[in-house]
Specification:
By secondary structure, the chain is of the alpha+beta class. The chain is 28% helix and 28% strand.
Length: 78
């Protein structure tokens, strides 16, 4: 079974490349195939569409890996 992983980020976020690398490393180490999608968030409409909480954001099968961000509706650039 392939797991869907999304990395949402804003332009210039210095943590994004390392985050993507770590997601790929964990997938390899666990032997779990992933469908990795990166989404650059540039506009207010995209912030609202993706409920973007800050850069980078990692979601596994649509669920934010940060428990404190789940169900929160305070989207925006950080």
């Amino acid at each position: 079974m392939t797991i869907k992983v999304e990395v949402l980020f804003s332009e210039g976020c210095l943590r994004t490349p390392l985050t993507i690398e770590r997601v790929q490393e964990v997938s390899q180490k666990m032997g779990v195939p992933i469908d990795l999608t990166t989404v650059q968030i540039d506009t207010y409409d995209e912030i609202m569409e993706w409920n973007f909480m800050g850069s980078p954001t990692v979601r596994v099968n649509g669920v934010d890996i940060d428990p404190s961000a789940r169900g929160d509706s305070l989207a925006g650039f950080t």
